[in-house]
Amino acid sequence: MNDTDRSGVIRFADARARIPDPNGKRSAPGLHRGTLDVVLSLPLPPNEQEPHTQDEIYAIIRGRGVLVHDGRRDPFESGDLLFVAAGVEHHYEDFTEDLALWRMFYGPVGGEVP
Asked: Residue 75 burial (CB < 10 Å; 0-12/13-18/19+)?
C-alpha cells in the first residue's frame, strides 16, 4: 500500500521480503497515514530502545518473549497485543529468534490522554 491508498491489505509476506534491507535494517514500512506509522519488525537481540514520543502498539505475529516496561516483566506470545504509552522506557528480552511483530505508533507527541 502507498500513502494515498484509502484501503487495502498490508501483507506480512511482502514486508518480510524487504527485511533485511541493503543496510541490514530489520524492519520494513507497512503503512503511514496521518499520525499512524506501521512497521514490520524482525528484531535481533539485544533489543535496545529509547522511550518514544507517541503511544505504541505491538501486534505479535509469531514468536514469544518478555516485555520489560515500567518496572515490570510481562511474557507475550503469538497473537498478543502489547501497549506502551509515550515516554515509557521499554524493550523486549528472552525472545525467540522467529519473533515478528507489527509496530504501530499513533497519536500526538506525548501520547493520548487516558
From this structure: exposed
